[in-house]
Specification:
334 residues, two-stranded antiparallel sheet, membrane, 73% helix, Sugar ABC transporter permease, mainly alpha, 2 strands, MetI-like fold
Length: 334
């Protein structure tokens, strides 16, 4: 009797355990994937809701206007009448326009002169600030400040006043026996006042250079000193190769920014002339603005904008191609 009762209890135990586990664990194995799917859909929906402001902004404020300008680049459009399709006429008119050719030359002059000078000054100051001296925090902030305020309209107005006739720069020239006359009124010198304004704003690349210099191991300099290497040799063989990725990054950013200069050139151009006397500061974007808003040739301006985009893209591609020859990375890739 006792043995049969024990056997009966043992046989019934698995059944009760299955029922018990089923009651406590909730849905069966077939219901678990469905619950996970519902939870995944809710999480995806929440992610899309958080992402939706960026998507709407991209479509309405970036992608949409870009596609519209691409269409307008092949039309005759003046902001008031219906766009009229003219094909490649805007581009052919552009290449035959002497003022457009002048804007290209001025822009290239600004990029070729301003960008290297700005990077050289930024690197030089970064090398000085990389040394352990008192007051480094103050000097870093002081040198970085122009990058924060240099692009403002007020600074461009002050800069214009400094280089005007009988102003500070003009009087300083007279002290050194140089010919009197402000740079602003001199078509040959006005572009250099614009170059100096952008060079003065060297704080941003300086900070990036300084961060790169901090990553160079001191052991390399110590070993070079033991071998008898001088200051210039240590800079050329150690510092430059080690910070070459940072140099490439700064070169890329500053080149792109130089092609897009507008505000400071427009202010230095003076009232009533957005491009300065004798088109002395006729940078590309300034002429684009002049054609699009002053002359109402929005189709022509759109064609100019797309040509600028293609040019900047090609310059960027060339810089990325060239980095294989002079940029050194830690893993040894060039």
């Amino acid at each position: 009797m006792r043995g049969s009762a024990v056997t009966h209890i043992q046989d019934a135990a698995p059944e009760r355990l299955v029922k018990s586990s089923g009651a406590q664990d909730g849905p069966g194995p077939l219901a678990v994937p469905a619950a996970l799917k519902r939870r995944g859909r809710r999480e995806n929906l929440a992610g899309l809701l958080f992402l939706s402001p960026w998507v709407v902004g991209l479509l309405l404020l970036t992608a949409g206007p870009m596609l519209a300008s691409l269409y307008l680049a092949f039309t005759d459009y003046n902001l008031f009448d219906t766009p009229k399709w003219i094909g490649l006429q805007n581009f052919t008119d552009m290449f035959g326009d002497p003022r457009w050719q002048k804007s290209v030359r001025v822009t290239l002059q600004y990029v070729v002169i301003g960008t290297p000078l700005k990077l050289l000054l930024a690197l030089g100051v970064a090398l000085l600030l990389n040394q352990n001296r008192r007051g480094q925090a103050f000097y870093r902030a002081a040198f970085y400040a122009p990058s924060l305020i240099g692009a403002s309209v007020s600074i461009a107005i002050v800069w214009r006043s400094l280089f005007s006739d009988d102003a500070v720069v003009d009087r300083a020239q007279q002290l050194f026996g140089m010919e009197a006359g402000g740079w602003i009124s001199n078509p040959d010198m006005k572009i250099y006042s614009l170059v100096l304004l952008t060079v003065w704003q060297f704080g941003a690349p300086m900070v990036i250079f300084l961060a790169g210099l901090k990553q160079v191991p001191n052991e390399l300099y110590e070993a070079a000193e033991v071998d008898g290497a001088g200051t210039w040799r240590r800079f050329w063989n150690i510092t430059l190769p080690m910070i070459s990725p940072v140099l490439f990054f700064n070169l890329l950013l500053e080149t792109i920014h130089s092609f897009q200069v507008f505000g400071s050139a427009y202010i230095l151009g003076g009232q009533g002339s957005s491009c300065g006397p004798a088109d002395s500061v006729l940078v590309y974007t300034c002429y684009l603005y002049d054609q699009g808003f002053a002359n109402g040739r929005m189709g022509f301006a759109s064609a100019m904008a797309w040509l600028l985009l293609i040019t900047v893209g090609l310059v960027t591609a060339v810089l990325f191609w060239s980095q294989k020859r002079w940029v050194h990375y830690e893993e040894g890739a060039r």
